[in-house]
Write a structure and sequence with these properties.
It catalyses: L-ribulose + ATP = L-ribulose 5-phosphate + ADP + H(+). This protein has 560 residues and is an alpha/beta fold. The chain is built from 19 helices and 21 strands. The protein starts with 10 loop residues before the first strand and ends with a helix.
């Protein structure tokens, strides 16, 4: 990735913390040229069965080890700088982005509770990853009380807050391990914690505070509301609150310790934390209102700026300045996309066709509708528009003639239908969508991209970078370092996009209209109260798993 370096060139580093790994990217400030990158896989990955010490985890848990994040600083950043072939002394800033809501309890100095020796065997002391969905009952309690009290912030989140977010996870912590809750002086997004590690200063960013922390109009949910949930929860906001920074702001200077980890100069600018999907809008030059960015990877996050405040049923949230200053930033999402396709290849596709490449080759040869299937894309629950992580996947129309490529194509299509539902919900609420821009690893799948264009009946633009979040973070680093006056100017100079890379075929689009109508019917029946069988099955599964994990002499009725 080497490029010609000029004598006056300056550089920034963007670090993207994903679900399974972290990536560092070295970018030239003047034009956004990507000069070197490196990836470091998390040693512990997603901890969803048992803690490293052997403590078993219940169903729907997903944890991580914060030391894996520090290792990204130690390994990926120096490797990216070496790959770029630059003098580290000419790096002027660093910025990070993170999956969200990924949150951890810490001591007052930022020490994760899972690193306190006597607490290491306690599951609630660890990082709760975004796809930790065991807090769904707690989200249900929060939503029910908020509706009962007509809390004004609820409609800013489409009428429901998610089990993935800070308050649901915090309430679960209080309910299930009050001692850990008391130990947690701070309950902090990993996006802010990693910045704390880099510059030694605790800050909170406006993005995660708004979208994941229910901060609206300058305040969090009231102490009275929280006490009504549980008297012990009344002071929860004290664990969240901190110096709040806009996106692109300088959080502090790189400490000597972090300079030692990364090989970067001590004292350079460290930008405020941010979310992987949200920084990508800047990388794709999609900050203008109406340009919806779908960041497609293991899951998909949809973000778009609007000029006016609107309430979109089922959205993840709307936050003033949440994407960029001067606009209302909207977020929606799908909890499972690439994860669904990976599940099929890893666990359901037979030998001989157990690769994405072979399945795509076979599926691409089919006319629209030839497989006779409709799938619901809820393998990891539904983030938008139903905000219910107890929902599960479904494939309808299977026969003895069904082949693996049929199912695979139906799964690809199901995620496109889910995105169309989100686009139509935005438009119906008065948030116009003028362009669909796709970023993330799944842009490399031409069949999937064409399906999305045909299903939505819209041209698709593609981000002009394979490292969208890392490039977006680098753009914010340049602003924090003072190289650009604001994120809009930095995005225009350093971002890139390939306009209208895919165009819909009119015939296929018409055929998908009929299939989409069937998807909507199933979506509403199973997701909006027609039949709650998915939730009942999940409850049966969880009870069976808990019984099997209990000591043999424990009576079943006690466990149940």
């Amino acid at each position: 990735m080497a490029d010609v370096h000029g004598p006056g060139d300056r550089y920034v580093v963007g670090i993207d913390f994903g679900t399974l790994s972290g990536r560092a990217l070295v970018v030239r400030v003047g034009d956004g040229a990507e000069l070197g990158t490196a990836v470091h896989e998390y040693r512990h990955g997603v901890i969803d069965a048992a803690l490293p010490g052997g403590t078993p985890l219940p169903p729907d848990w997903a944890l991580q080890d914060p030391e894996d994040y520090r290792d990204v600083l130690r390994h990926a950043v120096p490797a990216a700088v070496a790959a770029a072939g630059i003098d580290p002394a000419r790096v002027i800033g660093v910025a990070t982005d993170f999956t969200a809501c990924t949150v951890l309890p810490t001591l007052a100095d930022g020490t994760p509770l899972c690193e306190v020796p006597e607490l290491r065997s306690r599951p609630h002391a660890w990082v709760k990853l975004w796809k930790h969905h065991a807090a769904q009952p707690h989200a249900d309690r929060i939503n029910a009380l908020a509706h009962e009290r007509r809390e004004p912030w609820l409609h800013r989140y489409g009428g429901k807050i998610s089990a993935e977010w800070q308050f649901a996870k915090g309430l679960q912590l209080l309910d299930e391990d009050p001692e850990i809750y008391r130990h947690a002086a701070r309950f902090v997004e990993a996006a802010d914690w990693i910045v704390w590690q880099l510059c030694g200063v605790e800050t909170r960013n406006i993005c995660t505070a708004g979208y994941k922390g229910i901060r609206q109009d300058g305040r969090y949910p009231s102490r009275d509301f929280l006490a009504a949930l549980d008297p012990g929860f009344a002071g929860f906001v004290a664990k969240l609150d901190g110096p709040l920074l806009p996106l692109g702001a300088r959080a502090g200077a790189l400490t000597a310790q972090a300079a030692g980890w990364t090989g970067l100069p001590e004292g350079i600018a460290v930008a405020a934390g941010n979310v992987d999907a949200h920084v990508t809008a800047a990388a794709a030059r999609a900050l203008a209102p109406g340009h919806l960015v779908a960041i497609m990877g293991t899951s998909t996050c949809h973000v778009v700026n609007g000029t006016e405040l609107a309430e979109v049923p089922g959205m993840c949230g709307v936050v003033e300045g949440g994407l960029s200053p001067g606009a209302w930033g909207y977020e929606a999402g799908q909890s499972g996309v690439g994860d669904i396709f990976g599940w099929f290849v890893d666990h359901a596709a037979p030998a001989g066709v157990d690769s994405h490449e072979r399945l795509c080759e076979l599926a691409a040869a089919q006319p629209v509708g030839a497989h006779g299937l409709i799938a619901l894309d809820w393998w990891n629950g539904n983030r938008s528009l139903l905000v219910n992580h107890d929902l599960s996947g479904l494939i309808l129309g299977l026969t003895l003639a069904t082949r693996p490529a049929d199912v695979y194509r139906a799964l690809l299509e199901s995620t496109a239908y889910g995105t169309r539902m989100i686009i139509e919900a935005f438009a119906a609420a008065g948030v116009p969508i003028r362009e669909l821009v796709v970023a993330g690893g799944l842009t490399a799948n031409p069949l999937l991209m064409q399906i999305y264009s045909d299903v939505t009946n819209r041209p698709l633009s593609l981000i002009g970078s394979a490292q969208g979040p890392a490039l977006g973070s680098a753009i914010h680093a340049a602003v924090a370092a003072g190289a650009y006056p604001d994120v809009h100017a930095a995005s225009a100079a350093m971002g890139r996009v390939d306009r209208d890379a895919y165009r819909p075929d009119p015939g296929r689009a018409r055929a998908y209209d009929a299939l989409y109508a069937e998807y909507r019917s199933l979506h509403d029946h199973f997701g909006r109260g027609g039949d709650d069988v998915m939730s009942r099955l999940r409850a049966i599964r969880n009870a069976a798993v808990e019984r099997s994990a209990a000591p043999v002499d424990t009576p079943l009725e006690v466990v149940a």
